[in-house]
């Protein structure tokens, strides 16, 4: 932490000195500094999975403290961000081993005519974040170590993302990649988006993931490849926003099983007036029931699952039990009300079902998992400061108990309160 403070102070001194030396007409460099403080208090009584019988509810306050530095000139941009994340009370008052780590460190090179390269630790966000997202709800966020090559103009965006991960600098021993860091060993992703007009755009994604399937004890590498191919369509006529998504997965699992899985989603929202907005949506992710040799459960990979499958994070943000992967069908309706420019209220209802077959003994269970109700309020207190709060409850079925554990017949709920303070505290040009 001390080293980082010294570094920041040095950068500020250099920037201020350079600013004083240069004239107004020669300023081509920009340096900025942003700070984010985001504590969130949570009451948990059945979040992620149903609370078991006689289990006590819990509460805590987590916090993100993030410092972001940015530098820009004509054809070069650099981003550097460090953060401390954790729970209030986790660190001692006198802490000699503070946890403050880099979450972003990248450089972007602009080659002109729309071509660029961005390399380093970075967030990868595409389309509606269903497959690749920033996961900003999570206190730590999500970041990749990758090289992004791209071309962009007014109506087209084309990105190629490449990644190759290892645990350490090896001298010998091959390329075995032990689990615990990035979830994949290699990645190649091609993404293209075209804006047909102001009301319609379409994007296409192909991702090839290399997953380490080798023996951990012998550390022999055996890479299995999983492919994901799909499209995302957005149509915005008048007061409507209509979206459609479909993806297909094929290739191999880590254990070598053949994969054949799919996801489709449709959604529509209508802006009734400046204050009221309503929406409906349906997401279908195929599941695997073990009836044949193929693995049929779709994996939404590195998307922001909290955004889609209920705020209580029962699905894909947390795992099913007993090795089950029964898929999910999420049908929802939502309404948002904006009484003023600074306040927004939203309410969403989800009905969840499995898409594969699950048995209890010889009896096949019903598909229905239950209902979730999510309420949220956001209030912009002042510039760069927003207060948010939410409350959710889950009413689960016997099938929910079979696939998620716990005891859904008991009352399950969750509440939270968060303040996000995120100002740009310093900007200079020279």
Task: Supply the key terms.
single chain, 430 residues, mainly beta, Porin, two-stranded antiparallel ribbon, 2 helices
What CATH calls the topology is Porin
What's the total number of strands?
21
Helix content: under 10%
Helix/sheet category: mainly beta
Low-confidence stretches: none
Shape: globular
How is the biggest beta sheet arranged? 18 strands, antiparallel, barrel
Terminal Cα separation, in Å?
Answer: 28 Å
Which CATH class is shown? Mainly Beta
**Average pLDDT figure:** 93
Assembly type of the chains comes to: single chain
Q: How many structural domains can be distinguished in the coordinates?
A: 1
Return the string of H and E elements: HEEEEEEEEEEEEEEEEEEEHEE
Strand content: over 45%
Question: Measured on Cα atoms, how large is the radius of gyration?
Answer: 24 Å
By CATH, the architecture is named: Beta Barrel
Q: What count of helical segments does DSSP give?
A: 2
Write the layout of secondary structure elements.
Layout: H1 2-21, E1 30-45, E2 58-73, E3 76-87, E4 101-112, E5 115-122, E6 144-152, E7 156-164, E8 186-197, E9 200-212, E10 223-235, E11 240-252, E12 258-271, E13 276-285, E14 328-340, E15 343-353, E16 359-360, E17 363-364, E18 368-382, E19 385-396, H2 398-404, E20 412-421, E21 424-429
């Amino acid at each position: 932490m001390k080293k980082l403070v010294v570094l920041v102070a040095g950068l500020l001194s250099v920037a201020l000195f350079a600013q004083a030396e240069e004239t107004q007409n020669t300023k081509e460099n920009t340096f900025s500094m942003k700070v984010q403080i985001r504590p969130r208090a949570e009451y948990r009584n059945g979040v992620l999975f149903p609370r078991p019988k006689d289990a006590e509810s819990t509460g805590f306050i987590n916090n993100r403290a993030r410092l972001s530095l940015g530098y820009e000139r004509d054809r070069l941009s650099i981003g550097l961000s460090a953060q401390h994340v954790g729970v209030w009370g986790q660190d001692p008052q006198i802490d000699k081993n503070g946890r403050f780590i880099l979450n972003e460190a990248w450089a972007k090179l602009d080659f002109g005519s729309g071509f660029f390269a961005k390399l380093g630790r970075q967030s990868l966000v595409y389309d509606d974040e269903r497959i690749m997202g920033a996961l900003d709800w999570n206190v730590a966020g999500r970041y990749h170590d990758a090289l992004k090559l791209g071309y962009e103009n007014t109506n087209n965006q084309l990105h190629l993302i490449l990644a190759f991960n290892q645990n350490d600098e090896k001298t010998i021993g091959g390329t075995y990649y032990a689990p615990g860091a990035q979830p994949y060993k290699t990645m190649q992703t091609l993404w293209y988006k075209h804006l047909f007009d102001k009301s319609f755009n379409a994007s296409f994604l192909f991702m090839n993931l290399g997953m380490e399937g080798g023996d951990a004890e012998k550390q022999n590498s055996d890479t299995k490849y999983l492919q994901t191919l799909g499209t995302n369509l957005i149509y915005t006529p008048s007061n409507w926003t209509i979206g459609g998504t479909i993806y297909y997965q094929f290739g191999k699992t880590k254990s070598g099983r053949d994969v054949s899985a799919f996801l489709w989603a449709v959604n529509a929202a209508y802006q009734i007036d400046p204050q009221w907005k309503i929406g409906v949506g349906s997401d279908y992710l195929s599941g695997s029931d073990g009836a044949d040799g193929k693995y049929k459960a779709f994996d939404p990979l590195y998307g922001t699952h909290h955004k889609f499958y209920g705020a209580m994070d029962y699905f894909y943000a947390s795992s099913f039990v007993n090795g089950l992967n029964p898929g999910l069908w999420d049908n929802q309706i939502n309404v948002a009300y904006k009484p003023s420019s600074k306040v927004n209220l939203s309410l969403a209802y989800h009905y969840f079902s499995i898409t594969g077959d699950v048995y209890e003994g010889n009896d096949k269970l019903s598909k229905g998992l239950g209902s979730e109700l999510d309420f949220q309020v956001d209030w912009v207190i002042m510039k760069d400061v927003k207060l948010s709060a939410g409350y959710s409850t889950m009413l689960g079925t016997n099938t929910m108990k079979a696939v998620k554990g716990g005891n859904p017949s008991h009352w399950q709920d969750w509440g939270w309160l968060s303040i996000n303070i995120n100002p740009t505290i310093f900007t200079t040009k020279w």
